[in-house]
Amino acid sequence: xxxxxxxxxxxxxxxxxxxxxxxxxxxxxxxxxxxxxxxxxxxxxxxxxxxxxxxxxxxxxxxxxxxxxxxxxxxxxxxxxxxxxxxxxxxxxxxxxxxxxxxxxxxxxxxxxxxxxxxxxxxxxxxxxxxxxxxxxxxxxxxxxxxxxxxxxxxxxxxxxxxxxxxxxxxxxxxxxxxxxxxxxxxxxxxxxxxxxxxxxxxxxxxxxxxxxxxxx
Length: 217
Description:
single chain, alpha+beta, Protein Transport Mog1p, Chain A, 7 helices, 33% helix, globular
């Protein structure tokens, strides 16, 4: 399994054909016997992800270019978690939002429901570390060359920028902001030849955090 944020940062980096289209597109929580470790049904997880994920009207100046949410049921062990030194565990679900597009860039959010609060918090903490970024690079299946660097974000949100090149095409930037809310990991992905201004991405990430904390799974 390619882990949640690895998939966002690397696997979504566009191919040469997609580049041509562009030119024309945390908190830790409890680890005891509280609700942090109670079972969550797939239906509950999907309903929560739907409430938190990006939707039409969230980002000014964008339009929906793919309006169907996508639910993924991951399976298998995570190479990233092993590399980062976190005990492996499968996500219950991942749910991708609609795609919101502007000129030269697009945004999408992703909600991943983890087995417990502690694992979600450790996951996001590792993403924000230099060791975690090395693990993301090492465990990516993407063949494009990419460099990773931290991005400023209001705590408890962490940010990463991946800059990649393919052949003679211009560099593609992927900005990812992630946070843990209870047992959930939420990520915002902004990608394109020109990513949106940092303040816009930070504002949208904060909006997602507010929703995640409001609904609480």
